[in-house]
Design a protein that fits this description.
The chain has no helices and 6 strands. By secondary structure, it is mainly β. A 6-stranded antiparallel β-sheet has the order 1-6-2-3-4-5, with no helix packed on it. The mean pLDDT is 91. This is CHAP domain-containing protein. It comes from Kribbella orskensis.
């Protein structure tokens, strides 16, 4: 978000995009978009799992990975 490259609130991230939530300060949460409105992440039903966006109430948006 701070770098200005995020797609704030967009529930349609492309495949491979990182999706972000503001869950617990000072850390957030990140998942990987599947490209069809679903994402893979930890803490989905208490494990690594697949869920439909936004899933958590504090969804921020998505951005392309920058590794």
């Amino acid at each position: 978000m701070a770098r200005g490259v995020a797609h704030r609130g967009d529930l349609h991230p492309p495949k491979g995009a990182l999706v972000f939530w503001d869950l617990a300060a000072p850390y957030g949460h990140v998942g990987v978009a599947r490209g069809d409105g679903y994402f893979w992440a930890t803490s989905v039903g208490g494990k690594i799992g697949l869920a439909k966006l936004p899933y958590f109430s504090s969804y921020l948006g998505w951005a392309w990975p920058n590794f």
